[in-house]
Design a protein that fits this description.
Mean pLDDT: 97
Largest sheet: 4 strands, parallel
Order of helices and strands: EHEHEEHEEEHE
Number of helices: 4
Strand order of the largest sheet: 2-1-5-8
Helix content: 25-40%
Structural class: alpha/beta
Shape: globular
């Protein structure tokens, strides 16, 4: 049995910016013989649900309309890393393309649906802490 940190939206929790989820059946099924530990870094950082969409622009996270929400995203990322450490997780499954949880490819900051190479802030911090991170697309 493995311990897996998972983006809560992938488990069906309504915590995405629009107040919905992106439940992934493959992720949910992993819970039958593993321990899944759901996190929503955005909520952990103090952001509401629903909230304005945000995208990563360099080291900053900017909400649509221009508000800098980097502090909240970084706070939530730090909490997610602490949860991963306290639970000694084996690996992490994070939501693709997210400015927080994206791995390898994220939205490009133009709010046009364009994508760019990069990671969300939580994924960067998890990787820096030594955790293996994949997206739901890698299952």
């Amino acid at each position: 049995m493995k311990k897996i940190l998972v983006s809560a939206c992938l488990m069906g929790y309504d915590c995405r910016y629009a107040g919905d989820n992106c439940k992934n059946q493959k992720v949910v099924e992993l819970g039958s013989d593993n321990t899944l530990i759901p996190v929503c870094p955005e909520q952990l950082g103090g952001l509401s649900t629903p909230r304005l969409p945000a995208e990563r622009v360099g080291d900053k996270i900017i909400a649509k309309g221009g508000k800098d929400v980097s502090v909240e995203y970084n706070r939530g990322a730090d909490f997610a890393v602490e949860i991963a450490k306290q639970n000694n997780v084996d690996f992490c499954i994070m939501k693709s393309k997210s400015p927080s949880c994206g791995k390898g490819v994220i939205y490009d900051g133009t709010f046009t649906g364009g994508k760019t190479d990069g990671n969300g802030v939580t994924v960067d911090k998890l990787l820096q802490a030594g955790f293996k991170v994949i997206s739901e697309n890698d299952l």
